[in-house]
Every structure is written in structure tokens, then in C-alpha cells.
Amino acid sequence: MSALTHHPLAANRPDSRESNTGRAGGVAGMVWLTWRQHRWAVLGSLVLTAIFVGWMLYLSIDMTNLYHQCHDTQCPPFSAQHARLFAADGPILQAEILTLVVQYTPLLIGLFIGVPVLAREHEQRTLLLAWSQDVSPVRWLWTKLALLGLFVAILTAVLSAATDHLAHVYSNITGASLFGNRIFPVTGMLPLAGSVCWFAVGVALGAAIRRTLPAMFAIIAAFIGTILGIQWRYPTLIEPQFTYLRPDQPSPLAADRNGLIVNGLIEIRPDAASNLYDAPGHEVTYTDLVRMCPELKNPSGTMIPDCVTRNHLLTYVTYQPSSRIPEFHLIIASGYLALAAVALAAVWLIVRRTNLSAG
Which residues pair with 315 in a beta bridge? Predict the structure, then answer.
């Protein structure tokens, strides 16, 4: 048969499944699918992030100007600048509210971006359709996770930078330590690492539970438990430094405002005393203390400090210097990323074992 007997459109007619569905099954098709399914969460996140970042930058500039007016020191209590800073709706209160919101941003990302990735597919029974097309379940999963995860990372990196700057300005003006449990969780890149982590955990819980609302309750419980655990344990992630101090001696962090006192309080209760030591370093019991100072049987006023000073007693102070803040950031961020890796591995296993006939 000569070449002229062939149909002139034969060379252009699709004769394979790949050529007929290449565009739909490619990266562009997955980008479009991801956008269609998550566009409201993506747009909402963009708008809220823009508002919060702009608000924090405005507050940082306003507070810095007031700080400069006070000659780069904390403003005197009765000055006009102090009154403006600490007004009922002033910059200080606004900064505290914004940092609290940022602290819970990873939870919101896990709830509204992470959980629906697979939970909604199960609830709407669309997995059978999605995974029986030209994209394999694993490729579908990793492409969506890569797109959404990159979006979350970029968004929260910008938010983290703005929050960290605001936290430093707030610390300069109020004297609050950057190591304190109210500021520390939103400094550095911790909001970024936490957001990536809870996005992955949200996807994993959605895949395991297969229902959106129960998965949301599960991630809320996991997030709150993790945050409380970090606040309880983070001061001792690295063994604290220590020293013995007399009551008239300055704190070891007197010149290191951003450090953290882990423990150093004297506690005297009925029939109990703690954190008191004699000169050789032996702990003083309640019985010893009452023998030294009989008036402490009915303590009042300055009796306790007077007793401690008069008998040359010492307190045992443990603390973390501010130079360790980057190390603590690295430890906690690494923990978040390790948890994210475990969650992603769990999602991969769940997807591989999902029965398509179940939808």
C-alpha cells in the first residue's frame, strides 16, 4: 500500500492512553486539581497572612519610633510614650495578641489545609475516581503534598520573619526575655517548622481517620498536648548552668536580659523548705531553718530574707543563657521536622494500602 492510501489524519490521531491524557495527568493537571480543591483555603491563608504581616510591620515601626524617643531604653512609667505603648488598645497589647495568634497558626494550617487533603476525598468518595485515572495514588499524593507543603513553607517563612522582628522589638521595650514561654515559641523559624509539621500531621490524621471532623478534633488534642509538653520541658532540653547565690548577689542573668531562670526560688511552707543551702553547700531542712530563726514558726514581712541573710544561706539557681537560644531553636525545629517525616511515612503507607473499591 502506498503512502497516499493512508488517511491524512492518521499521524495526528491519538493512539495511546498517554497521549490522550498527558495534559490532565501531568504536573499542570495536578496543579490545577490542587488549586480547584483547596483554592478557598489557599486564598484565605494568603489574605490573612498579608493582613498579619502588614499589621506586625506597622506595630514594629510604631514601637521602634517610641523606643527611640525614649533614647533606646525602656520608657519611664509616667511618660507619654509609656502611656501610649501600654494603653488598653496600645501596641503592646496588639503585639501580644498577634504573637498568640502566630503561636496557633500551625494548628490552623493543620486543620484547614492538612486534614482535608485525604479526609475529604474519603468522605466524598472521590478517591476511586481520582486514583483510577492516569495518575497513580502515590504520585497523586506526593504531588499534592509537594504543592501544598511548598505553599505552607513560603507563607509561614514570611510570617516567621515578621513575627521574630516584632518579638525582638517587644522584648526591647518591655524587658521580656526572648527565652520566655510567651515569646520563645514564635521566634526564629519555629512557626515555619511547626506549620510544616502540623500540615503533615493533619494529612496523616485525615488519612487514618477518614472523616474531617473527628480528624480535626484529633489534631487539636495532639497540638495542645505537644505545646504543653514543649513548654514544660524546653527549659531543660540542654542541661542548665547553675550557681549558688547569696540574697544580696545579683542574678546571673542581670546582664543577660534574654536568658531564662529555670529554678531559683526559695520555697518555705509549713514543715517544708527547699532551695536553701549553707556555706559548704549542704541543703537546709525546715527543722534547721526554724532552729536558726525561731520567728519563722509564724513568718511575716521580711523575716525570711532577714533569716537567710543573717545566717549566710545560699540559693541554688539554674539558668539558660541567651546564647543558647539558637541551639534550642534547632532542637525544637528538628523535633517538628522529625514528626513531619513520621507523619508523611504513615500517609504513604496508608495510601499504598487503601482499597480503591472503598472510595
Answer: 245
Neighbouring CB atoms inside 10 A of 281's CB total 9
Per-domain boundaries in the chain: 25-238+323-358, 241-320
Q: What are phi and psi of 185, to 5 degrees?
A: -65, -15
> What pTM did the predictor assign?
0.83
Residue 295: all three cell numbers together: 520567728
Q: Provide the pairing of β-strand 272-274 with 267-269.
A: antiparallel
191's CB contacts (< 8 A; 6+ apart) are 102, 103, 105, 106, 156, 159, 160, 163, 185
Q: What stretches of the chain show up as alpha helix (H) in DSSP?
A: 17-25, 27-69, 80-85, 91-103, 105-109, 116-124, 127-131, 137-174, 190-209, 212-233, 286-292, 303-310, 325-353
Q: Shortest CA distance to 102 belongs to which of 163, 60, 184, 46?
A: 163
260-263 vs 267-269, strand pairing mode = unpaired
Rounded to 5°, angle at Cα 143 from 139 and 146: 140
**Cα separation values, 249 from 244, 252, 254, 258, Å:** 10, 9, 10, 19
User: What does the pLDDT look like over 233-280, one tens digit per residue?
Assistant: 999 999 999 988 887 788 888 888 899 999 877 776 666 667 788 888
Kindly give, in sequence order, each residue whose CB lies less than 8 Å from that of residue 137, ignoring residues fewer than 6 positions away: 131, 351, 352, 354, 356
Whether the CB-CB separation of 320 and 179 falls below 8 Å is answered with yes
Q: At what angle do helices 27-69 and 116-124 cross, to 10 degrees?
A: 140
Highest mean pLDDT among 2-11, 148-157, 269-278, 312-321: 148-157
